[in-house]
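Quarterly update from the structural biology core.
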Amino acid sequence: MVNINEEFERNINSYEVDFADVKGQENIKRALEIAAAGGHNVILIGPPGAGKTMLAKRLPTILPPLTIDESLETTKIHSVAGTLPTAESLMTTRPFRNPHHTISDVALVGGGTHPQPGEISLAHNGVLFLDELPEFKRTVLEVMRQPLESRNITISRSKFTVDYPASFMLIAAMNPCPCGYYNHPEKECICGMALVQRYLSKISGPLLDRIDLHVEVTPIEFNELASTRKSENSKHIRERVIQARLIQARRFENNPNVHCNAQMSSKAVREVCIISDAGQQLLKNAMERLNLSARAYDRILKVAHTIADMENSEPIENQHLAEAIQFRSLDRESWAG
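Predicted structure, tokenized:
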């Protein structure tokens, strides 16, 4: 007879990939560490071959380990969907779901005559990776907006209603334009500005507002690729992420529905994310220059608070705000044309 606790302890954090495999890309690793520390959604923008998929696949390896309750909950979902690996009786690592861009609305959110969990529920307690984001049908992307906020999905039928959990981290990847080389440091983009704008407009503003970190991924230089210097492994990064999450757990101990900074409501952001007058002015200038929405304002404060937590700093300093503002690449004029 299988002992669940023994299996859980034996296989926890047994991932096949590791951040030590990634050469260079220190700024992207920093962004993903911030995302993991605060539970933030991320979009990676960069040319083909820059390493977006490789980096995304390693995000679960730096997330805090599943608790036994999370493991059992995740196992139930995959068991209902029939996706539990035959050799496993328990999910011990965080799910990583990578649906193709031809996926339908029902396959993503769940449904059918006898409603089954969709990809967003199969990614519960883990990561949902959408590669080539603009290639997904607009209707598919729009149905994700509500689950990203509520962290569950309700499927209604004439005789019954089913609720499936959908608390996942979204990581998306996209080229900056159809040819992939807009803003490339070496290769020339052959797309006209109107074509670039049309390509970017495939992703709606409300969906982008729900993504906290917009990260530019640049091609890795040959010297870094050929370097024999070892990169930091996932275990060390994960330890820092866990420490930041512990700070957040203490902060939200009286709120059972909030476990990390990304889950804060607008009201909680106003109460928790206190910044100085100089910080207010810095944020005001950024809001006006980038024409950011009220939701983007909240996102910046949440990310800034996560950066402060990573430095074990109680007040949100100006440098934390400045770094958070830099992670709004798609709001900049250089991307909008």
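DSSP finds 17 helices and nine strands in the chain.
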